[in-house]
């Protein structure tokens, strides 16, 4: 590797030969090279994907804004748990606690006070309504619009990173933010619950005791599902991000979308429209507190999220391939 | 006219071993924004191994032309060939060999200069994965940023930001380097350093395309010049040719100007009295003949020097009065 590294340096003076072939992996584009291509243009035509992905993810998590929001998201379940614990007292919950009605309400809040199962799950559902989608929207806004307003997108386009690849790399970065954010919320809620009430209150909706392992994989499932849901929001946000140079436009658009959806969901007369609204999917998470588990709601939510994902990504791709760099 | 030929052959042919003698070529390049043509029918030719200065007033289409060359913007009409391959179709083939600094440096304020370059290096196809750090250090060294490498970009001065942009263009071994206003924000030392870097690239056979509105800069560094005005190529060709495009003159200082003019006109050499001496048109004659004529007529010659038209003067003529220039330029220059 060191030999190829040395030859790849500009000082090596090998300006007229493609010197990087030594370091090229299996993705060397020799095979793709048209036979008529000018002989002088030797060497790889694109950098290894993992290298670009690594650079992107490292950049995403170095951004002070991302770190601040992730910190805030981690703190919220702790604050909620402690506050509810003080307000309701430890006696308010327990195996005999009131059952769930299928949507977050006072009953859920009551058991969130102490349970290492309900607190992370309840926090996740609450935050999925607004703050987590906004986090993802912010990441998506920075990914394309923000980068372009800095002029930094040009650097990669000129490297070159093809536009399709750029969208892929940026999507992975946005997905990573959603995944890490959801994980932190659940982890922080879980640990707070454990600290406040140990393994008490690990119950399903019907009041059955759940094993520790049961709780863990249900929570893991919740994180995975939330990450996919957030990526649906991220895909739409990326489409907006590819169409503007102002990251704020992305965040505000997603915020507006969430608020409008929220309002529409409150209006019973618009019932037939509700299945088409993305935030409706969040209620699917209540599947995880059923015993035995039923995945109807989560599955439906996933289909809904998948549709938004496909539409968002298609629009983003259409936009990114035609936009000026 | 001989001087023009001389200048043309003086251009190093370093890149010719790889095939085409042209590093970049456009045909009928046109770009419209909302119905207004920003670039209109540009036929550009950048010879391999040359340092081509792209001149033009603000808004003349320099940056748009460069952005089209690099595939950042799709042209409304026209063909582009970069390093022998069509753009933007073969961008993945061509761009790894092209370094560019377009529209100022674009970096992230919260990362250090080195981290910013590492991010860029990760996407450079020609750099081996094990050699990213070495390439970055090397590029930082070349632009004189090694000591400030670990400072945040936010804390960089305008000149340092510009240098970092240049470093990014020099990360990998290049065949063509495109610099859009590289001396923006640089102090005189920084400007000299850019000149040195361009000369260094030139010596290695790398083709350089520099856009600038600083004429002295272009005059000092370039072998060829392209002049754009209002989206149209007004002139292009070797720098020397452009400078000599006005009729060549000899400026003679003599104590007796009136007699000198008379003596020359007797020999059918066009001459006129100027405030600083006698200006002699040497299109049809040689400086030696002029001096010989004067001396034989008994007129003392204190000093005689060939007058080079400054680029500034040529540029002013080209961009203000296009019609006149077309007539004046020599045959060796392609004039749009």
TrEMBL record, chain A:
Keywords on record: Membrane, Transmembrane, Transmembrane helix
Bias (Low complexity) ranges: 1-14
Top-rank lineage group of the source organism: Bacteria
Membrane-crossing residue ranges in chain numbering: 67-88, 108-132, 172-196, 216-240, 247-267, 301-320
A Pfam entry, by short name: ABC2_membrane_2
Organism (species): Myceligenerans crystallogenes
Stretch list, region Disordered: 1-36
Name of the protein this chain belongs to: ABC transporter permease subunit
From TrEMBL, chain B:
UniProt entry tagged with the keyword Kinase: no
A Pfam family annotated for this UniProt entry: ABC_tran
GO molecular function, one term: ATP binding
Entry keywords, A to Z: ATP-binding, Cell projection, Cilium, Flagellum, Nucleotide-binding, Transport
Ranges of residues in domain ABC transporter: 24-255
InterPro entries cross-referenced by the UniProt entry: AAA+_ATPase (IPR003593), ABC_transporter-like_ATP-bd (IPR003439), ABC_transporter-like_CS (IPR017871), P-loop_NTPase (IPR027417)
SMART domains recorded: AAA
Family: Belongs to the ABC transporter superfamily.
Name of this protein: ABC transporter ATP-binding protein
Species of origin: Myceligenerans crystallogenes
């Amino acid at each position: 590797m060191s030999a190829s590294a040395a030859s790849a340096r500009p000082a090596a003076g090998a300006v007229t030969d493609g010197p990087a072939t030594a370091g090229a992996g299996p993705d060397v584009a020799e095979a793709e090279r048209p036979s008529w291509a000018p002989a002088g243009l030797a060497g790889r035509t694109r950098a290894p994907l993992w290298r670009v992905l690594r650079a992107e993810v490292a950049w995403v998590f170095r951004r002070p804004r991302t770190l601040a929001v992730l910190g805030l998201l981690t703190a919220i379940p702790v604050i909620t748990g402690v506050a509810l614990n003080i307000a309701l007292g430890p006696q308010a919950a327990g195996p005999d606690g009131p059952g769930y009605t299928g949507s977050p309400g006072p009953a859920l809040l009551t058991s969130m006070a102490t349970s290492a199962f309900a607190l992370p799950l309840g926090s996740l559902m609450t935050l999925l309504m607004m703050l987590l989608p906004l986090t993802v929207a912010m990441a998506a806004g920075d990914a394309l619009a923000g980068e372009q307003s800095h002029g930094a997108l040009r650097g990669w386009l000129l490297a070159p990173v093809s536009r399709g690849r750029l969208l892929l790399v940026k999507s992975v970065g946005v997905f990573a933010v959603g995944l890490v954010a959801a994980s932190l919320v659940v982890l922080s809620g879980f640990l707070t619950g454990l600290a406040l009430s140990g393994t008490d209150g690990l119950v399903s909706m019907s009041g059955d005791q759940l094993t520790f392992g049961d709780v863990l994989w249900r929570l893991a499932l919740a994180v995975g599902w939330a990450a996919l849901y957030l990526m649906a929001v991220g895909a739409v946000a990326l489409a907006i991000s590819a169409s503007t140079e102002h990251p704020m436009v992305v965040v505000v658009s997603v915020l507006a979308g969430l608020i409008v959806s929220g309002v529409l969901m409150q209006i019973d007369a618009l019932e037939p429209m509700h299945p088409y609204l993305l935030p409706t999917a969040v209620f699917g998470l209540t599947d995880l507190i059923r015993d035995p588990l039923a995945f109807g709601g989560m599955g439906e939510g996933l289909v809904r999220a998948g549709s938004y994902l496909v539409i968002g990504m298609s629009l983003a791709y259409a936009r990114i391939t035609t936009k000026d760099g | 006219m001989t001087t023009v030929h001389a200048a043309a052959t003086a251009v190093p042919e370093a890149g010719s071993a790889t095939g085409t003698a042209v590093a970049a070529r456009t045909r009928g390049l046109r770009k419209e924004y909302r119905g207004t043509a920003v670039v209109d029918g540009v036929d550009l030719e950048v010879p391999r191994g040359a340092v081509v200065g792209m001149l033009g007033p603000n808004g003349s289409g320099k940056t748009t032309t460069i952005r089209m060359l690099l595939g950042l913007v799709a042209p409304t009409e026209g063909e582009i060939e970069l390093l022998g391959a069509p753009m933007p179709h073969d961008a993945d083939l061509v761009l790894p060999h092209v370094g560019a600094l377009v529209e100022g440096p674009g970096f992230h304020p919260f990362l250090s200069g080195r981290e910013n370059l590492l991010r860029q290096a990760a996407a450079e196809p020609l750099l081996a994965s094990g050699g990213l750090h070495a390439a970055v250090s090397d590029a930082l060294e070349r632009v004189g940023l090694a000591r400030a490498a670990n400072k945040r970009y936010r804390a960089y001065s305008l000149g340092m930001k510009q240098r970092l942009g240049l470093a990014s263009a020099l990360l990998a071994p290049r065949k063509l380097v495109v610099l859009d206003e590289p001396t923006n924000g640089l102090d005189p030392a920084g400007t000299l350093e850019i000149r040195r870097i361009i000369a260094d690239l030139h010596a290695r056979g790398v083709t350089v395309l520099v856009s600038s509105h600083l004429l002295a800069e272009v005059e000092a560094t370039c072998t060829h010049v392209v002049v754009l005005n209002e989206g149209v190529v007004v002139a292009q060709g070797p720098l020397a040719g452009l400078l000599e495009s006005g009729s060549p003159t000899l400026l003679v200082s003599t104590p007796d100007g009136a007699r000198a003019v008379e003596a020359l006109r007797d020999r059918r050499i066009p001459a006129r009295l100027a405030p600083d001496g006698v200006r002699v048109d040497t299109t049809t004659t040689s400086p030696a003949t002029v001096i010989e004529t004067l001396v034989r007529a008994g007129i003392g010659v204190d000093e005689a020097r060939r007058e080079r038209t400054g680029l500034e003067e040529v540029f002013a003529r080209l961009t203000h009065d296009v019609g006149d220039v077309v007539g004046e330029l020599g045959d060796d220059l392609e004039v749009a």
